[in-house]
Design brief:
The structure is a homodimer. Chain A is built from ten helices and two strands. Chain A folds into two domains: 8-70, Arc Repressor Mutant, subunit A (Orthogonal Bundle); 74-221, Four Helix Bundle (Hemerythrin (Met), subunit A) (Up-down Bundle), CATH 1.20.120.530. The first copy, chain A, starts with 7 loop residues before the first helix and ends in a 13-residue tail after the last helix. Chain A has a two-stranded antiparallel ribbon with strand order 1-2. Chain A is globular, with a radius of gyration of 18 Å. Chain A has helices at 8-21, 33-40, 44-56, 74-98, 101-119, 123-139, 144-155, 158-166, 168-186, 190-222; strands at residues 60-62, 67-69. Chain A binds chain B through residues 7, 9-10, 13, 45, 49, 52-53, 56-57, 76, 78-80, 82-83, 86-87, 90, 143-146, 149, 153, 232, 235, and chain B through 7, 9-10, 13, 45, 49, 52-53, 56-57, 76, 78-80, 82-83, 86-87, 90, 143-146, 149, 153, 232, 235. The structure holds a DNA duplex.
DNA sequence: TAGACAAAATCAGTATACGGTTTCTGTAGG
DNA sequence: CCTACAGAAACCGTATACTGATTTTGTCTA
């Protein structure tokens, strides 16, 4: 690890970002600069700067005791999906139009891995394959600003995604939508991709909302009213 | 100055961000952490972190000699507008639907200032009023993620906007589109707002492209082939 | 005058240090 | 057993210092 670029901050950032995408950081975890620093054998500053960047991008929040993954409110989920609905169907349609055979193969490979890991109930693998599928089709999006924005908005959900896949029924529905999109990609039909992505967006929003609602309820019953995460807003 | 929050980084960041929005930093300027630091009477690190944040958000690029405002390629402009086209018409429609009388007054006030400064050829005031108009209607957008994303995408154009307003003909067309949007807001017609914003997006894209094209040509003739701005990508 | 080359300056990246605030822990008292 | 409080620890924010890379500047030579 620690390869990307000659820059320590970028390296740490990439490492953390990957961990976040893979849901390898739980909301109860606390990321502390000094820990990360001497885990990588470097000083505090690069680690700190990487963390700060993740905060300014909205993935983490600063607490008085280390950095934590940002937890989404129900409003956050609705709002984020409103944006995703505007962008992803259109972007996916572009991808379908401009797809190369190589990328098509990548998408298919990712889809296969998704289905395999679903059948084996291998959640971590499912998570990873899911990320791969998304990254694969985003590669065919020629507009880097569009792709980056979409990537970012998807990554906000990392803390909820785990919960979505944990429930077999929800996961099944989710994967079903994904495979319909995949089929549309194979048909090279931009409009079909667009429509199915739109449908998928609504289904995904529902799924995330219901999972998060349940999470919040459980949390509320578990601890009547505690916890404090303040300081340093999302900018 | 230097008020926002008890945090030096945020303060510097807000200060710089405002300067950028106002096009108060030219592409030939170089922002250096040490300079900013002792201009504000603080140490390098907060200034540096603010600059780094602006880099990671895509407003600045790091060079081997200070930080500079990011210059947009023609492809950047097209790409950014593709995203804006997906988001702003929809968001403006929401704003029209949810507008309060207070915000409506703000929008009108900003519009008046836009027209006044245009008639007086006061470019800085025009720039500021333009920012105000945008911020006013964005206030009526209930989805903070949507509003933040739009704000960000608009701000990318700060380095080109100056050129757009410098040409009276272009500026006139631009303001005309704006006033049509304003009228639609006053009519409280979300659909009319949406349509006019869509139209405006295309007109604005054309304007920015032609201004930038001219800028690039002039630069090319001025210096046959020089300049180097590398190191530290947009992330 | 133009080119080569060395010395100096500039600036980003990284490391280390210190202060202050919040949270945790352990102990004493109810 | 629970609460109150004092001390300790954790951790963020900021400052300062060092290093190495790159660019600029100045000088010398053809």
């Amino acid at each position: 690890m620690l390869k990307p670029s000659d820059n320590l901050v970028d390296a740490i950032y990439a490492d953390l970002r990957l961990k976040l995408q893979r849901s390898a950081v739980s909301p109860t975890d606390r990321l502390v600069d000094t820990e990360i620093a001497n885990a990588h054998g470097i000083s505090r500053m690069p680690a700190r700067e990487a963390l700060l960047r993740l905060v300014s991008e909205g993935y983490l929040v600063g607490t008085t005791r280390g950095f934590a993954v940002r937890e989404l409110s129900l409003d956050d989920i609705s709002g984020l999906f409103e944006v995703r609905r505007q962008l992803e169907p259109r972007a996916a349609a572009c991808a379908a139009r401009d797809m190369t055979p190589e990328i098509e193969a990548e998408i298919t490979a990712a889809m296969n891995r998704v289905e395999l890991s679903l059948s084996q109930s291998d959640i971590p693998a499912l998570l990873a394959a899911n990320v791969d599928f998304r990254n694969a089709w985003l590669k065919a999006v020629n507009n880097p600003h569009m792709a980056a924005t979409i990537s970012r908005f998807i990554d906000y959900f990392q803390s909820v995604r785990l919960g979505t896949f944990a429930d077999p029924a929800t996961a099944g529905l989710y994967i079903d939508g994904l495979s319909r999109i995949h089929a549309a990609f194979l048909a090279h039909d931009p409009l079909m991709v667009q429509d199915r992505m739109t449908l998928f967006m609504f289904a995904a929003e529902e799924a995330y909302l219901s999972v998060r609602r349940r999470q919040l309820q459980e949390a509320a019953t578990a601890r009547p009213a505690r916890r404090r995460i303040q300081k340093r807003g999302t900018a």
